[in-house]
Design a protein that fits this description.
single chain, 414 residues, Barwin-like endoglucanases, five-stranded mixed beta sheet, three-stranded mixed beta sheet, 17 helices
Length: 414
């Protein structure tokens, strides 16, 4: 399984180079205070030219004379905005009486997987003020019969138990996404519940104000709303709030942060045919990448394997081959010239090294992401393993199983 490692927010928080700002303790009871929070959430530009004058985040300290000084207002170091660190500045902590926060990625996945008849089951359990969009759905009665009690702290205390109960339900247990989610929380259990959650660095959130118009990514609205909802909850003014109110507000913040911001941001900027993932990972020429026409594998094979041409193998695996040659006493220019000379000509030594590289791979082949151009919306990117580099130098095609051509909308070449 290829997946992104779940971030360890506790480790990230402990290794911060500058003091964090905890949103919970920030005042929100004046327009000036709210504007101050917004200045820490996003960066505002009022021209087409980015200023190179050193400054702190709030602008209180500016100029080269103040470089390195810590601002008394925003607690940020004065420096060049072009060289600013994107480490999170704002952080959320569990409000007083609330036991922990839930990793936003876990909340997103759980809310998406455990959703029935328009009901967000996770939010229903955590937020006692949440009302389903329709008259009491049967699933909620089933959850009550199973002994699941509503309340955010109760969910934190019984996280493993409740997850096992939900995963074990008939309507969920055969779902592959549920199985993957179960694997994730078991392997990253120590990162599921957090003491602190970061908010995106203001350098990544940009607002432009020109000609009396404000231009911004609308996904930022969810981020601002969630931040303002959490802000001030631990100030003296809110000292009288009950634990239940704090629990419900925490659940609303997590849901707003994920549904209102992260989900929308991922969908708008990362996913889709124009998103950063396809644009920079599949539509750009990267290291260890290649492109060629496909043909069918006609001999006995596994449908998850692909065979690559000799010339592509020499190019894409060049670094690996150079390391192999160095161990054999062939180094530097001599090694590069050797590979160049045999990029279009078979050589048994290179064939031997290809086989070694494949044999050293833990998955029985070299894992790779295979993309069909132009990309489609569904199944046009799949994971395969390279199990063979073709020794027929005259065959420039990538061998693909006939069982896999449908997802790529490829011709059935034989």
């Amino acid at each position: 399984m290829i997946h992104q490692e779940l971030e360890d927010f506790g480790k990230l928080f402990a290794n911060l180079s500058t003091p964090p700002i905890i949103v919970n303790t920030m005042d929100t009871y004046s327009e000036e205070a709210k504007e101050n929070i917004k200045r820490l959430i996003f960066t505002k530009y009022d021209s087409d030219v980015m200023s190179v004058v050193p400054r702190c985040d709030c602008g209180e300290l500016t100029g080269h004379d103040n470089v390195g000084r810590v601002c008394g207002e925003c607690q940020r170091v004065c420096g060049s905005q072009l060289e600013s660190d994107i480490t999170p500045i704002l952080w959320m902590a569990p409000p007083q009486g609330v036991k922990a926060l839930i990793n936003p990625i876990i909340w997103i996945m759980a809310s998406r997987i455990f959703r029935i008849d328009g009901v967000n089951v996770i939010r229903w359990i955590c937020d006692s003020s949440y009302q389903p969009p329709r008259k009491f759905p049967p699933i909620l009665a089933q959850l009550e019969d199973m002994g699941i009690t509503r309340g955010y702290n109760n969910f934190i205390d019984n996280f493993d138990k409740y997850m096992d109960m939900l995963i074990g339900m008939r309507r969920f247990r055969r779902n592959q996404n549920v199985k993957d989610f179960e694997w994730l929380i078991k392997n990253y259990r120590d990162r599921v519940l957090c003491k602190y959650i970061p908010l995106p660095n203001r350098s990544l959130m940009v607002v432009e104000e020109r000609n009396d118009k404000r231009i911004l990514d609308t996904t930022m609205i969810g981020l601002v709303d969630a931040t303002l909802m959490m802000a001030g909850i631990d100030t003296p003014v809110n000292a009288g709030l009950s634990v239940r109110v704090r629990e419900n507000r925490t659940a609303k913040v997590l849901n707003g942060l994920t549904e209102g911001f992260y989900n929308q941001y991922f969908y708008t900027n990362l996913n889709g045919k124009t998103g950063h993932v396809r644009k920079h990972m599949e539509a750009s020429r990267l290291f260890y990448s290649f492109r060629a026409v496909i043909s069918s594998i006609t001999k006995v094979h596994d449908f998850e394997e692909i065979h690559i041409p000799w010339t592509i193998g020499v190019g894409a695996l060049n670094t690996h081959l150079l390391n192999k040659l160095e161990k054999r006493g062939i180094r530097g220019i001599e090694a590069k010239n050797f590979l160049t000379a045999h990029a279009l000509e078979y050589h048994p030594l290179i064939d031997e090294m290809f086989r070694e590289i494949i044999a050293d791979s833990e998955e029985g082949g070299i894992p790779c992401m295979f993309c069909r151009y132009p990309s489609l919306m569904r199944a046009s990117i799949q994971k395969f393993v390279i199990t063979k580099v073709k020794t027929d130098v005259g065959d420039p095609t990538i061998g693909l199983s006939i069982l896999d051509v449908v997802g790529f909308n490829a011709d059935k070449i034989s």
